[in-house]
Amino acid sequence: DADVTQTPRNRITKTGKRIMLECSQTKGHDRMYWYRQDPGLGLRLIYYSFDVKDINKGEISDGYSVSRQAQAKFSLSLESAIPNQTALYFCATSDWGAEDTQYFGPGTRLTVL
Amino acid sequence: QKEVEQNSGPLSVPEGAIASLNCTYSDRGSQSFFWYRQYSGKSPELIMSIYSNGDKEDGRFTAQLNKASQYVSLLIRDSQPSDSATYLCAVKVTGNQFYFGTGTSLTVIP
């Protein structure tokens, strides 16, 4: 089984709808991240969490919210989806040690019509 | 100015050649630097991390860091067609955020 899983893998929705993307990990890592990837713009950090009680905004948090339900679960919500939120979304985890290597989930392709 | 900049490429090299990928960053307080490889439609996977000035070698891959010049590079020796992918430079800046470059597309021609 994959260490970092994301659901759904693909989602098509309409403008104004509320969407939740979920991320689960079995790596036992404390740190979890949400990124979006757009062609020509690379990976951009949306939110990150260093433990259940610690949530931080990233580079592009406007229009998004997150919930860290447990050490292993980190959800990203789009309260009212808009077309420019169409992107590939990745969840990642890392341990707190010096290496801080990030391990990425398989991604969720979101299309907002 | 972007936090992390890479040449987008595409970069093409013949099989067996050395591929050189470059990255510059703006935050002088950055301490951790990473190279990820991303195949089309897949998630990024770590190739190398580097934290100190100088070179770090792992098999066919060598990462080079020069903090004074705010420059990170990745050399791939004996390039193989399977190395064809997009290579992402990532930097952990002060404040614990990660910034990624836009990636360099590499094609290794058999």
Task: Spell out the key features of this protein.
heterodimer, A: 113 residues, mainly beta, 7-stranded mixed β-sheet, 4-stranded antiparallel β-sheet, B: 110 residues, 6-stranded mixed β-sheet, 11 strands, globular
- Decide which structural class fits the backbone of chain A: mainly beta
Q: Biggest sheet of chain B, in brief? A: 6 strands, mixed
Greatest interface (CB-CB under 8 A), with counts per chain: A-B, 24 and 21 residues
Low-confidence region ranges of chain A: none
Task: Count the DSSP helices of chain A.
Answer: 0
N-end to C-end Cα span of chain B:
37 Å
Shape of chain B: globular
Based on the structure, what is the oligomeric state of the protein chains? heterodimer
Beta-strand percent range of chain B: over 45%
Number of strands of chain A: 11
Helix content of chain B: under 10%
Low-confidence stretches of chain B: none
- Termini separation of chain A (Å)? 33 Å
Task: Give the helices and strands of chain A as they follow along the chain.
Answer: EEEEEEEEEEE
Number of helices of chain B: 0
Mean pLDDT of chain A: 93
Strand elements of chain B, count: 11
- How much is the radius of gyration of chain A in Å? 13 Å
The backbone outline of chain A, from C-alpha atoms, is globular
**Residues in helices of chain A, as a percent range:** under 10%
Proportion of residues in extended strands of chain A: over 45%
Plain-language structure description:
The complex is a heterodimer of chains A (113) and B (110). By secondary structure, chain A is mainly beta. Helices cover 0% and strands 57% of the residues of chain A. Chain A is built from no helices and 11 strands. In chain A, strands 2, 4, 5, 6, 9, 10 and 11 form a 7-stranded mixed beta sheet that branches. In chain A, strands 1-3-8-7 form a 4-stranded antiparallel beta sheet, with no helix packed on it. In chain A, a hairpin with a 2-residue loop joins strand 7 and strand 8. Chain A is globular. The mean pLDDT of chain B is 93. Chain B has 110 residues and is an all-beta fold. In chain B, the strands form 2 sheets. In chain B, strands 2, 4, 5, 9, 10 and 11 form a 6-stranded mixed beta sheet that branches. In chain B, strands 1-3-8-7-6 form a 5-stranded antiparallel beta sheet, with no helix packed on it. In chain B, strand 7 and strand 8 form a beta hairpin. The A-B interface holds A 33, 35, 40-45, 48, 50, 56, 58-59, 90, 98-107 and B 8, 32, 34, 42-46, 49, 51, 88, 90, 92, 96-103.
